[in-house]
Write a structure and sequence with these properties.
CATH topology of the domain at 7-183 and 215-243 and 281-296 and 319-333: Rossmann fold
Oligomer: single chain
Number of strands: 13
Helix content: 25-40%
CATH class of the domain at 7-183 and 215-243 and 281-296 and 319-333: Alpha Beta
CATH architecture of the domain at 7-183 and 215-243 and 281-296 and 319-333: 3-Layer(aba) Sandwich
Bound molecules: nicotinamide-adenine-dinucleotide
Shape: globular
Strand order of the largest sheet: 3-2-1-4-5-6-11
């Protein structure tokens, strides 16, 4: 990576993937500004470094965004509401933050006199379920959730603004990431936490679906490589491991690594409406344009994640009450207190 002593803005830098991006940029001597409203991001995940600056603010606040973007050379835009089940109840919030918030970043970036590159973090969810495998960047985009639609709208807006106004941008579509510093009850932390908490059975939803998992340090490295790559300007690039695993097999692998002999019980309340049944990436473009390949194997990555999760005080919603009935997003983020109103505030 040839990025050093550069000024980099990381939106969502206190989050799961963002905090790993900040860590890697800091190790490479960059001046990192983190713009985050800490709705799911955590102070303790941030790398402490005298070159780093934290702005507590909302990407929907145009004034804060324009201040944060001013004078930056590079931007990695990750701030978003990312957890699909939340969007069943808060679709407008997902569009407000994921789509309009991204337009705020793009609008300020277009006006910048110093900007070298913006990397927008989209998602593999924009594809919907696999029509063919492995899924390349030309795979049809048929999103299955309003989360994915809000991300696709932002993904296409960035592309259009690049074409229209010359914004030097790359769009990264990560497949599922996992690793320490979890913020959301994604499937891997969910399985680990159930096992850690001494569950008699693993209660899971659709275990026949499959996903393509990348360890978070590999995901973050791809994003940083995209920052410094001129070749990737105007390109949309998948970041995934290049294989998929069924949730059933994943759960059994995690149980084996945690030395638990356990059965899976299907809990239908965990079935997601309009679920994506398969995501499986083709990562050739990332290999060619970014000189990237995943380095951490699934087993090694899971061991690291388990080691982190076992000592973590984080808890998710327990007992689980279903995604669409009685869903309260704050249950697992707010010590079980019922809260009303908007997400991400
Ligand atoms: N985790 C994955 O597997 C995955 C896969 C594909 C794409 N992504 C994308 O990667 C990005 C990061 O996801 P993550 O998994 O690290 O989730 P995360 O929730 O840990 O990160 C999101 C960060 O954005 C911040 N944020 C949310 N709303 C904000 C707002 N209005 N203003 C400022 N900051 C705000 C949160 O506090 C948090 O720090 C998201 O854009 C997500 O769509 C994630």
């Amino acid at each position: 990576m040839n990025l050093e002593n550069s000024r980099v803005l990381v939106t969502g830098g206190a989050g799961f993937i963002g905090s790993e991006v900040v860590k890697q940029l800091s190790l490479n001597n960059n001046y990192v500004t983190i713009l985050d409203n800490f709705s799911s991001g955590k102070e303790e995940y941030l790398t402490k470094n005298e070159k780093n600056t934290v702005i507590r603010g909302d990407i929907c606040d145009e004034k804060i965004v324009s201040e944060a973007v001013k004078d930056q050379e590079y931007i990695i835009h990750l701030a978003a509401l990312p957890f699909i089940p939340d969007c069943y109840n808060y679709p407008q919030e997902f569009f407000r933050i994921n789509t309009t918030g991204t337009l705020n970043i793009a609008y300020s970036a277009v006006q910048s006199k110093t900007l070298e590159k913006l990397v927008y973090i989209s998602t593999s969810e924009v594809y919907g379920t696999a029509k063919y495998i492995p899924m390349d960047e030309d795979h049809p985009t048929l999103p299955h959730s309003t989360y994915a639609v809000s991300k696709l709208a932002a993904d296409r807006a960035i592309y259009t603004i690049h074409k229209e106004q010359g914004l030097p941008a790359t769009i990264i579509r990560p497949f599922n990431s996992y690793g320490p510093n979890i913020t959301q009850p994604y499937i891997i932390p969910e399985i680990i936490f159930q096992l850690r908490n001494g569950a008699k059975y693993l209660k899971l939803g659709n275990i026949e679906s499959s996903r393509d998992f990348t360890y978070v340090s590999d995901t973050a490295r791809a994003m940083i490589l995209a920052l410094s790559s001129k070749l990737s300007i105007g390109e949309t690039i998948n970041v995934g491991s290049g294989m998929d695993i069924k949730i059933r097999d994943l759960a059994m692998l995690i149980a084996k690594l945690m030395k638990k002999d356990i059965e899976i019980k299907i809990d239908k309340s965990r079935y997601r409406p309009f679920d994506v049944s398969q995501l499986y990436s083709k990562n050739q473009k990332a290999r060619e344009l970014l000189n990237w390949k995943p380095e951490i194997s699934m087993e090694e990555g899971l061991r690291k994640t388990i080691a982190w999760a076992i000592n973590s005080e984080l808890r998710f919603n327990d007992p689980f009450r279903g995604w669409t009935t009685g869903l309260n997003h704050k249950d697992y983020r707010n010590g079980g207190k019922k809260t009303s109103g908007k997400l991400g505030r």
